[in-house]
Amino acid sequence: MKIKNEKVQKVCSSEHLKYLKEKRKEALKIRIFQIAILAFFIIFWELSAQFKLIDSFIMSSPSRVFKTFLSLQSSGQLWSNVLITVFETVVGFLLGTFLGILIATLIWWSGFVFKVSEPYLVVLNALPKVALGPIIIVWLGAGMGSIILMALLVSVILSVMNVLHGFMSTDKNQISLMKSFGANKFQIFTKLVLPSNISVIISTLKINVGMSLIGVITGEFLVSEAGIGYLIVYGGQVFKMDLVMVGIIVLAALAWFMYALVQKFSEVFLKGRR
């Protein structure tokens, strides 16, 4: 019997190794295709500019963008602007997420508050936050505070809507069961509602980091004198498309990096809870 069990374990182990090998092959294949598509785009863009198929003054080219990138890096302008945008995004992201979860908790806690606030949440969620830009500038002035508030407004409403929906979707039968055992509101929230919605909160974090960056760039477009958004606007005003392209590429890399950090945090956090 023992020998038979060992044979079954060996078969299962070999099948599992085969499965992992196939998954690694698939992941490698996907990564190769992703890199190939990017490389093809860059080569096609450069050749189109070199052979005058596109106007390099308007569309720029990878070689010109790379030279501009090196110039900004050597002068120190690039990283100083990147750090400003990162700081504004992180502050807006943290404040928006924290306030969003807190407000969602308060609304869930009281059915009366939920019924009163529901239409306002719907309107605020549909309202383009850019429309509030002029009001924010009048209130706080043309500075970093206005940009952070813009990022906060973009992320906080989204946090409230997502997290509140998760809280309200918690299994009603389990809540009724806890109530039948005499659990109070706080115990139901900490023992059932919050743990059941950790995945919802993590998904909200992943969305919020991108939305906060959008809010920051929008704010920098309107009022900033520094940051990636400012570089893009300035490049457009003086017709330096190389500078605009550098700003866009750095912005895309920054968005990917910040999302990857949140993704890594979520993986470590979920692994620690198991």
Q: What is the gist of this entry?
A:
This protein is 87% helix and 0% strand.
Structure description:
The protein is mainly alpha-helical and 274 residues long. It has 2 domains: 2-54; 60-273, MetI-like (MetI-like fold), CATH 1.10.3720. Helix content is 87%, strand content 0%. It has helices spanning 2-50, 56-59, 62-75, 77-109, 111-126, 133-140, 144-168, 172-180, 185-196, 198-223, 228-237, 241-273. The longest helix has 49 residues, at 2-50. The mean pLDDT is 80.
Label this structure with key terms.
87% helix, mainly alpha, MetI-like fold, 274 residues
Summarize the topology:
Elements: H1 2-50, H2 56-59, H3 62-75, H4 77-109, H5 111-126, H6 133-140, H7 144-168, H8 172-180, H9 185-196, H10 198-223, H11 228-237, H12 241-273
Helix pairs in contact: 3-12, 4-5, 4-7, 4-10, 4-11, 6-7, 7-10, 10-11, 10-12, 11-12
CATH T-level fold name of the largest domain? MetI-like fold
CATH class type of the largest domain: Mainly Alpha
Mean pLDDT: 80
Q: The biggest beta sheet, please? A: none
Question: What is the count of structural domains?
Answer: 2
Order of helices and strands: HHHHHHHHHHHH
Low-confidence stretches: none
Structural Rg: 25 Å
> CATH superfamily name of the largest domain?
MetI-like
Helical content class: over 70%
Instruction: Work out the helix count.
Output: 12
